[in-house]
Write a structure and sequence with these properties.
Oligomer: homodimer
Helix content of chain A: 25-40%
Structural class of chain A: alpha/beta
Bound molecules: 3-isopropylmalic acid
Number of domains of chain A: 2
Mean pLDDT of chain A: 95
Largest interface: A-B, 58 and 59 residues
Radius of gyration of chain A: 20 Å
CATH architecture of the largest domain in chain A: 3-Layer(aba) Sandwich
Order of helices and strands of chain A: EHEHHEHEEEEHEHEHEHEEHHH
Number of helices of chain A: 11
Shape of chain A: globular
Number of strands of chain A: 12
Low-confidence stretches of chain A: none
CATH class of the largest domain in chain A: Alpha Beta
Strand order of the largest sheet of chain A: 2-1-3-12-11-4-5-10-8-9
Chain lengths: ~350, ~350
Amino acid sequence: QSLRIGLIPADGIGKEVIPAAKAAILALGSDIPKPQFIDLSAGWETFTRTGVALPQETVDILRQDCDCALFGSVSSPSRKVVGYSSPIVALRKELDLYANIRPVVSVAPVVGEKPSVDLIVVRENTECLYVKQEVQTVGEHGKEARATRLITQRASQRIGQMAFELANSRPRKLLTIIHKSNVLSITDGLFRETVRSVPTLPEANGKYDQVTISEQLVDSAVYRLFREPEVFDVMVAPNLYGDILSDAAAALVGSLGLIPSINAGDSFVMGEPVHGSAPDIEGKGIANPIASIRSAALMLRHLGYTKGADRLDTAVDQVIREGKVLTPDLKGTSTTNEVLEAVLRIL
Amino acid sequence: QSLRIGLIPADGIGKEVIPAAKAAILALGSDIPKPQFIDLSAGWETFTRTGVALPQETVDILRQDCDCALFGSVSSPSRKVVGYSSPIVALRKELDLYANIRPVVSVAPVVGEKPSVDLIVVRENTECLYVKQEVQTVGEHGKEARATRLITQRASQRIGQMAFELANSRPRKLLTIIHKSNVLSITDGLFRETVRSVPTLPEANGKYDQVTISEQLVDSAVYRLFREPEVFDVMVAPNLYGDILSDAAAALVGSLGLIPSINAGDSFVMGEPVHGSAPDIEGKGIANPIASIRSAALMLRHLGYTKGADRLDTAVDQVIREGKVLTPDLKGTSTTNEVLEAVLRIL
Ligand SMILES: CC(C)[C@H](C(=O)O)[C@@H](O)C(=O)O
Ligand SMILES: CC(C)[C@H](C(=O)O)[C@@H](O)C(=O)O
């Protein structure tokens, strides 16, 4: 038996950190099925070369020949380019990876970190403004552009179920629903009510009775995240709020370079560091590989390979705690490879 | 000559802080035209009493009999209530108060504050998802809700002009355009391009040549705000991003209870503290009046009463710096009235 992992480094530092994650996975030996890596292309560079940001071949191979995947990061053009649109947004939709799960945990001591952050942002991953239904018209006073924000009961329910499952599995069992229903009473109202009603669904059957539900408007949530992050356990949010919240949470624990995620659906999972392609440090070999290694761990855990996932997490946490081999984003002077090697030594 | 100021305390602590702002204005004596206050109603309590959240009378009097206004804060129902919608959002639109200007400045030393924050969030105040065009339908898989996000060239241009004016008047002359055009290429693309092109308009006529323009995706902007807030000077953003960003910035300087704003149009200005109605401390007499007093100062400054505005700001800054009379949000033990009295003593 083998584990077929699609690798899509895409752009910028994605090409530096995904190979590090691959090396870390390879070091797990018999704790996981024999990994088999399949290199796939997508991104801005792919677009400039081929005119397509997400080749159909990439999607087909992911669907047919992969058990899971790791995605790096994409660059965006600095101006609108006709025909280009983000391949990561498209992939999430194509593979119906409806949940973006982003744990943010402080390991301490890390420079600039707030201690005792231990939360998970559960971000809906397929709709909200990310449906990208936009039109431009010309009105009396010039151009007018409109985008549609879609919130469905179906998507809100399945992300709600995922969030309740996660909350229920954690010691504090707290779920905070993020919305802005004081303004968006219909769309965010539907999100809020649907998530709230998950425990009353027949299939829930009492299993979420221990979960405490609370709510927070998205603006206050960002404020509280910064002031008292320890109040949050699991946060569930529509797509765009989740995007912003997870960056906000990342800022609390020292660096975006530490924050992993998975894009999860019912039949596929794709790990992805939360950071972007970081054009400012691209090619310098100093990108932090930890977010990608942790994303690999999350992916393995989601697939049931707990032992392999635990080993990766333990090794990474130890490197952070020792604080000797850190990349510049954590005020260290080490390279991507040095951090990888430190992780591999512990593995 | 008199200065006619509409007072709309609305709900919760709005009813405690707006009277404090009124007292501070009254103490300015001949530095401003003789103030004449007109009490007006709006809000959730008004709605529960009358079935209308924003009485037409309030709008009419503001339009016809007021030079400016101070708004407190509104409570929202915890569930959707038919017929209720936020009176502050409606007022901004009714009076075409298209710019929401929110300066966030650290005075130090304040508990939990990041030093050297000195920025202004310039938030578009009339469109984006705040047009509240929402519909709910029933599809194959249950309920589906859609909201329209509107971005126009006209609104983007006028908020852009306001932002360039402000940036140009400040020592650093930096303007950061906030958007998410990697996903919303048409709507946020229009916002970005329109703001960028303000310096090339005939009426600009070289006057913004000294302003340095940069851009930041909204998710990264929140991240950077937490990590290195000193990089920002003036930030201009569509409505919802501006809402979130200003709360994020507020978290940097110790308390939302410090952050003022004005809602400004071409012919009217309304001061408004950025904090909400704070149901948890309502009625206890411990709400921080500083955001409201500062909002009064911003309003007076906008109207050209610089001397009065300066006096209010100087007094407030001194009270904060002394650190002896502070409300609980700043880890003090003083009441709203004690802070007001401290301000009045300096005035
Ligand atoms: C690159 C961009 C489209 C993406 C998003 O907004 O989802 C990124 O910010 C993320 O958080 O994964
Ligand atoms: C009360 C609410 C409608 C309002 C907004 O979202 O604009 C508030 O959060 C603000 O920032 O003034």
